[in-house]
Amino acid sequence: AKNGLSCGTDQQLNDFLDLHESIMDMQPKLKELKTRKQTLEKELANVLVKKKVKSVNVGSFRIYVYTTPELRLMPYRLRPSGTLDQKD
Q1: Is 52 exposed, middle or buried (0-12, 13-18, 19+ CB in 10 A)?
Q2: pLDDT tens, position by position, for the chain (88 residues)?
Q3: Which of 43, 47, 64, 83 has its CB surrounded by the most CB atoms within 10 Å?
Q4: Do the domain assignments include residue 18?
Q5: Number of structural domains found in the chain
Q6: Could you tell me if residue 19 is inside a domain?
């Protein structure tokens, strides 16, 4: 290998750069998705607060409504045991 590294390392460096590029390419879409999520979160939180809903189960998630410092929805994945796994 011209850089003094093994062929395997060259392949890993190329894979790393490919993944880096993919992540960079996804940034605009990710930003758009986050913005849409925040907008929907505010709308939903307002509705749930008006209905005095503190938490709601949706599929394998339980979503909690937090009202401080601003309205937030916090989804937690329900484990089979019924306990919660925090999800961002």
Answers
A1: exposed
A2: 466 777 789 999 999 999 999 999 999 999 999 999 999 999 999 999 999 999 999 999 999 999 888 889 999 998 876 566 655 4
A3: 64
A4: yes
A5: 1
A6: yes
